[in-house]
């Protein structure tokens, strides 16, 4: 027969309480009686080992870490803020890490998270080398890792079970659409100044590839390439300013991200140069406002804060026992091409201090039958995504041979039913 103490322990773990307060009162009384229950009043661990409150009741809520290149860049600031908002909604504490695009710094941070007893990191590595190094370090440390934008060709989460998700916009496809829109806007002729991003980044390579793909159909367009803008407005401003004396005339600028576009716009304003068509990527709030104000022509809005939130929710779900199918771990995120006719509407519906997404609803752990990603997430077929790229340093894992990519694609399409992006669902490029 079970002892009285064991019955109390069992009730504390599984009994129904009218409110968290009544449960805490019961636990306090039991503790005063000297009965060790080994259960928590609510939630998961914080950084000091105590239990946190908030969303995701009854779930594991281990502290999470967000890893970005620098918080002096608008995109990374938005990414970090969105990650924090998502984790707060789930009742999870979070800390931010800046690695400055340095592989050794990033690896040291993984070691620090392990030493602190951390269970998860999500972020956006600066280069393919960093992406591979951090993924492998997290794998060795037993830390869940979710990432975006950059990864070596043919290297996928099938190669590391702690790498629970990779999300990226389809940068080549989006860049080609952006370039075509830019070329059409300038009358299909003239010189375009191209400001690249950071060398060694997948997104940089893919956006340049998209530009070049579009260029084939526009024989009267000439591209002049500046030095890398390194994803920052200041480096892009300097790069653009330095190349201006070498360009007699130009009609537009293809900047590799929105922070770079902001640097270009600052340089144009400083020199009193007007009526140049500028495009960017990522959908930074400042740049969407520039589009509304007539300073920028186009951006592709994936919304960095949304990307981070999706990654954070992924690590939360994995810590709470959700097993993702392989195609769920390698996803294209929908991007919305924002032009002058839609900028005001997008600003009002999406760009608020608190992003208008239901983060808890994205969670399969919290809503196993009614989860909703609130954006287009389209499983990537690596064989199509990396077509034409040699399987050199990495080879495609054979697990993909039996992956039900189409089945997961239908599942995610059907799950997207709500949120501020739903009205733009058919316009999201993924």
UniProtKB/TrEMBL annotation:
InterPro entries found in the cross-reference section: Peripla_BP_I (IPR028082), SBP_2_dom (IPR025997), TAT_signal (IPR006311)
A GO cellular component entry from the record: cell envelope
SUPFAM superfamilies: Periplasmic binding protein-like I
GO molecular function: carbohydrate binding
Domain of life: Bacteria
Subcellular location: Cell envelope
Domain Periplasmic binding protein per the UniProt entry, residue ranges: 69-297
Keyword field: Signal
Pfam families xrefs: Peripla_BP_4
Family recorded in the similarity comment: Belongs to the bacterial solute-binding protein 2 family.
UniProt-recorded name of the protein: Sugar ABC transporter substrate-binding protein
């Amino acid at each position: 027969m079970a002892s009285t103490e064991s019955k109390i322990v069992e009730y504390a773990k599984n009994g129904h309480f009218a409110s968290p307060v009544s449960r805490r009162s019961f636990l306090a009384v039991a503790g005063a009686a000297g009965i060790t229950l080994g259960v928590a009043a609510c939630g998961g661990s914080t950084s000091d080992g105590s239990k946190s409150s908030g969303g995701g009741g009854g779930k594991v809520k281990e502290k999470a870490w967000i890893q970005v290149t620098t918080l002096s860049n608008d995109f990374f600031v938005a990414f970090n803020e969105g990650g924090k908002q998502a984790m707060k909604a789930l009742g999870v504490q979070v800390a931010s890490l800046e690695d400055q695009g340095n592989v050794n710094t990033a690896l040291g941070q993984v070691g620090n998270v392990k030493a602190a007893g951390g269970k998860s990191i999500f972020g956006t590595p600066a280069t393919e080398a960093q992406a591979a190094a951090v993924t492998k370090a997290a794998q060795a440390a037993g830390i869940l890792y979710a990432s975006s934008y950059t990864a070596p060709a043919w290297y996928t989460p099938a190669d590391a079970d702690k790498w629970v998700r990779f999300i990226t916009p389809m940068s080549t496809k989006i860049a080609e659409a952006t370039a075509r829109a830019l070329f059409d806007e300038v009358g299909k002729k003239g010189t375009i100044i191209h400001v690249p991003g950071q060398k060694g980044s997948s997104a940089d390579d893919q956006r340049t590839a998209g530009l070049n793909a579009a260029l084939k159909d526009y024989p009267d367009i000439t591209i002049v390439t500046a030095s890398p803008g390194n994803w920052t407005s200041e480096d892009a401003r300097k790069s653009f300013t330095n190349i201006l004396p070498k360009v007699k005339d130009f009609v537009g600028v293809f900047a590799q991200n929105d922070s770079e576009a902001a640097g270009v716009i600052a340089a144009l304003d400083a020199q009193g140069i007007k009526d140049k068509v500028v495009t960017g990527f990522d959908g930074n709030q400042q740049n969407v406002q520039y589009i509304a104000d007539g300073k920028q022509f186009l951006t592709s809005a994936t919304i960095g804060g949304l990307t981070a939130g999706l990654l954070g929710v992924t690590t939360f779900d994995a810590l709470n026992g959700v097993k993702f199918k392989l195609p769920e771990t390698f996803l294209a995120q929908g991007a919305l091409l924002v032009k002058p006719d839609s900028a005001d509407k997008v600003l009002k519906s999406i760009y608020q201090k608190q992003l208008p997404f239901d983060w808890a609803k994205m969670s399969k752990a919290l809503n196993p039958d009614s989860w909703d990603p609130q954006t287009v997430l389209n499983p990537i077929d690596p064989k199509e995504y990396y077509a034409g790229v040699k399987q050199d340093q990495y080879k495609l894992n054979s697990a993909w041979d039996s992956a039900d990519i189409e089945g997961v694609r239908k599942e995610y399409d059907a799950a997207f039913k709500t949120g501020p992006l739903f009205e733009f669902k058919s316009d999201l490029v993924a």
